[in-house]
Amino acid sequence: MKSVEDLLKLKEEVQQSLALRDEGEKIRVVVGMGTCGIAAGAREVMSAVLDEVAKRRLTNVAVTQTGCIGLCAQEPLVDVLIPGKPRVTYGKVNAQKARQIVAQHVVNGIVIREWVVNK
User: Fold this and answer.
1) Cα separation of 61 and 113, whole Å?
2) C-alpha dihedral over 107, 111, 115, 116, to 10 degrees?
3) Peptide linkage before 86 cis (omega within 30 of 0)
4) Residue 54 in 3-state DSSP?
5) What does the alpha-carbon distance between residue 85 and residue 43 come to, in Å, rounded to a whole number?
6) What's the rounded Cα separation, in Å, for the pair 17 and 1?
């Protein structure tokens, strides 16, 4: 950095980068992508969630991944976090179930109780 302008430009770039990470009041869908999740099909689940969110043009939904959640027997796991509501964890999710979770829970707010894992 050679000037104050360079510093201000860098500051602006960093602030823009952080704004992209800020999920604010977005709905979050988190796919467990630990080794056990991947072995059970989490990549296909992640792809299905991303595809369904894109097809529906859902701009208020952030799709992320996490490491091991600790319920290996229930993998692949998907958490749905809607601001102001309790976290819902779905177990043994496949691509078809993932699409239904987006359609029913994320879009319509209807929890699919028979797929919910009790932690």
Assistant:
1) 21
2) 120
3) no
4) helix
5) 27
6) 19
Determine the Cα–Cα distance for residues 119 and 105; give it in Å rounded to an integer.
Answer: 19
pLDDT in tens, 59-94: 899 999 999 888 999 999 999 999 999 999 999 999
Alpha-carbon distance of 62 to 23, in angstroms, equals 7
Residue 66 vs residues 15, 60, 94: alpha-carbon distances, Å: 24, 19, 17
Neighbouring CB atoms inside 10 A of 112's CB total 15
Q: Which domains, from first to last, does the chain contain? A: 23-115 (3.40.30.10)
Alpha-carbon Rg for the chain, nearest whole angstrom, is: 17
- Please give the full DSSP string across 100-115, using - where no structure is assigned: HHIIIIIIT----GGG
CA distances from 45 to 9, 27, 58 (A): 39, 17, 17
Average pLDDT taken over every residue of the chain: 89
